[in-house]
Write a structure and sequence with these properties.
Blueprint lengths: L17 H4 L10 H7 L4 H11 L2 E2 H6 L7 H14 L2 E5 L7 E5 L1 H18 L14
Antiparallel strand pairs: 1-3, 2-3
Helix pairs in contact: 3-6
Length: 136
């Protein structure tokens, strides 16, 4: 069995409780944990901004994101991305607090995967309905 790409805070098949173990097992997708993680609000935006602009301080990163993201949510998302190994936090503090965020090699791989999915959508190979879901 392949390990999920992201495991922080996401249950894996072995974590199923005894009461649900009796039920028929659901179809398992190797990317399920990763997709749940990266589909959280602002995650893909953060990865995209860091991939396009390189190392950024918190305020600079926030300026490169859509206007609806709060500082609290951005901080939480950065911590989650860092814990998952997609973002590095560099503390360059001297007398003044100076922290920069950048993508790790794994973060650049996530950016490449997101870019490929955008190409699928733009090329018309995958069509989504008005709800953002593929037609049944």
């Amino acid at each position: 069995m392949r390990k999920p790409l992201v495991t922080a805070g996401i249950p894996v098949v072995e974590d199923i409780s005894a009461e649900t173990a009796d039920a028929a097992p659901a179809a398992e997708c190797a990317a399920d944990g990763f997709l749940k993680f990266i589909s959280q609000e602002w995650m893909s935006h953060i990865v995209l901004a860091l991939a396009r602009h390189g190392s950024l301080r918190f305020g600079g990163l926030r300026r490169h994101l859509p206007p609806g993201v709060s500082a609290r949510v951005l901080s939480a998302r950065l911590k989650a991305l860092q814990a998952a190994g997609y973002v590095d936090r560099h503390d360059l503090s001297g007398r003044v607090l100076h922290v920069e965020y950048s993508l790790t090699a794994a973060g650049h791989a996530v950016d490449a995967a997101l870019a490929r999915s955008e190409q699928l959508l733009a090329g018309g190979r995958v069509s989504l309905g008005p709800s953002g879901r593929a037609p049944s």
